[in-house]
Automatic annotation (TrEMBL):
It comes from the Bacteria. This is Serine aminopeptidase S33 domain-containing protein. Residues 48-258 form the Serine aminopeptidase S33 domain.
Amino acid sequence: MTTWAPDVLGDGYQQLTIPLGTDPDGEGEVKATLIRYQPAQETKKTGRAVLYVHGFTDYFFQKHLAEHFAEQGYAFFALDLRKCGRSLEPGQTPHFVSDLTLYDAELNEALRQVREQTGDGEVLLVAHSTGGLVLPLWLHRLQRKPGGTAALGISGVILNSPWFDLQGPSYLRNVGTVAVDAVGRVKRKSIVPKTGLDTYGVSLHVEGNGIWNYNLDWKPLSGFPVTFGWLRAVRRGHAQLHRGLDIGVPALILRSKASYFAPRYDPRVDTADAVLDVRQIARWAGCLGDRTTIVPIAGARHDVFLSADQPRAEAFAEVDLWLDWLHGHNAAEANR
């Protein structure tokens, strides 16, 4: 029986627990949480839906994102993955998985729930950062099954600053990855040194220099500790992406126009990606295997939808333009 309960985001938001059974990584029972937005005022109905997936040290709290898609006629859903945000249970290591394919369980069930709730209409996927790696890998696996992504009603994907490679000097991506693989195999939950900066968090949160208010237990300013086992899983995902995927649907990639890395808060962090190297996003975007549109947003943060007013408005405008194209493209493909 499907039981929706009130969500922490308040009026119009509900959540559904997705039980996932015993954790393959040995941390007890795990669950995911599906969130939906149902505005009190009726919006136009298109039979389309959005399923949003967050990144590392993150969860869904971006109400303005849900409201924007609802205004465009999309039923909006978001997923807090296992051990993340609403899904984190006491004693569990936040965001820890030893293999990104483990997320298939909640992604498959979330997609099923979304289609059940919306009458098997089209589903647009949206993901940020690490979610922007997890989703293409999942889509690649779905595309290889009979009927591919089309049979599941997936119409397209929007990736917001997807994590396509490890930022930093090239030796970190070569020798460093070999070391991560070795340590991550035997000491999975050992913490990677020097990965706890609060630069980006201070830029975002109202308790720092930002305007956004969210739960610091679920999204701490300095981020959750990065473990070798989790990073090993991510690097294996990167390697698969770099070999080339076939996600089966068109993609829009939004990113900042520039990166700026700093050991402590600096106002320049507010107008650049302070987490990822945007040149790597551009470099690997062609590996998705379908039509890909890349749009750099001047002055955007790592999460372009948490940027200052002007770049955020530009990002939403680009989304709406691309959605107009996507609807026309998919209609033309269906009539061929």
